[in-house]
Write a structure and sequence with these properties.
alpha+beta, SH3 type barrels, Alpha-Beta Plaits, 5-stranded antiparallel beta sheet, 8 strands
């Protein structure tokens, strides 16, 4: 199960008719099963009652699965319509669709096993209990990833398409499955991380809202700080009005630190898209603008210098 089924268009008339046809086929199969169970296989003489009952149950099973498929298709179409009308978010649409899948096919399976084939519910529960213990012991890691995947899907920590930091890894979320989360780094590397590892790591989601990027700029110690910060803010204001820079506002420039050979200023800008290309584009525009303005205002950007004193070897 992947939280990105790749379908976002509204249901067409053809699809709606197809869903209706699936329902109709299921009802016809159900009716055929009832006929076979009471009168035997039509046109076949001498068929034993037990065989007719088996055929009827098979037809009932097919009918039930067809109806479950139609329910899932209808839920899929309904969730997309609700998303289009802004009732559901894209994430809520995916969760509703997956929940409908589990409910429809889970209910159909229970109905077929218990209602159609007449398996004792007590035996089913007993067998399920024993099987659960065996599976839990044999596949602890896998089950841990599955439960972690359900947690990620239901809590909306991040979505497909978000740019996320998971510990030292940074990239775009490409896929969220029950077992793994797949992300692609800005360099094109694909990271596949088990979900049970994801939920235990520090997660920073850059994909919701604006992203503030701080650029550090150094000035010489003899610089007028108020003048330098004012120049940086003027550059930011000019670039905010330029739609091609991805800068969507700024905060006043502040002094960050006194370093060995410079006073470090923090130039704070808001980027409208938390994507590496947008952040790099904005950062390049800011640094280029500050360099030009500093040159015009005679503000020195220092570089590390070292004074070497030579001793007199004869002294």
């Amino acid at each position: 199960m992947v939280l990105d089924r790749g379908r976002t268009e509204l249901p067409s008339t053809r699809r709606i008719v197809g869903t209706g046809a699936v329902v109709a086929t299921g009802l016809v199969c159900w009716y055929a099963g009832s006929v076979i169970s009471t009168t035997g296989v039509p046109g076949v003489v001498g068929v034993e009652t037990d065989l007719a009952e088996i055929v009827a149950r098979v037809v009932y099973t097919v009918a039930t699965l067809l109806v479950a498929t139609a329910v899932v298709r209808a839920a899929d179409d309904s969730s997309i319509v609700l998303e289009d009308r802004a009732v559901f978010t894209p994430h809520q649409t995916e969760v509703a669709y997956r929940a409908a899948q589990v409910a429809a096919f889970g209910g159909a399976t229970a109905l077929v096993v218990v209602g159609v084939w007449g398996v004792s519910l007590t035996n089913v529960l007993l067998g399920a209990g024993v099987t659960s213990v065996v599976v839990a012991l044999a596949a602890r890691q896998t089950l841990s990833s599955v439960f972690a995947g359900l947690t990620l899907i239901s809590t909306d920590v991040f979505r497909v398409g978000d740019w996320v930091k998971i510990d030292s890894r940074f990239g775009k979320i490409e896929q969220i499955s029950l077992f793994n989360t797949t992300m692609e780094s800005p360099r094109g590397e694909t990271h596949v991380i088990p979900n049970d590892e994801v939920i235990t790591r520090d997660i920073t989601n850059l994909g919701k809202g604006r992203y503030r990027n701080d650029v550090l700029v150094g000035v010489a110690y003899e610089t007028d700080i108020d003048h330098a910060t004012g120049v940086c803010d003027e550059v930011l204001k000019e670039l905010t009005d330029d739609d091609e820079t991805n800068i969507d506002g700024y905060q006043p420039t502040t002094v960050k630190d006194f370093d060995d050979s410079q006073i470090t200023l923090a130039v704070k800008m808001w980027v409208d898209e938390p994507k590496p290309m947008a952040i790099n584009r904005a950062q390049t525009a800011v640094l280029a603008g500050i360099q030009d303005r500093f040159a015009e205002e005679d503000i020195t950007i220092p570089f590390p210098q070292r004074t070497v004193v030579e001793r007199d070897a004869t002294a």
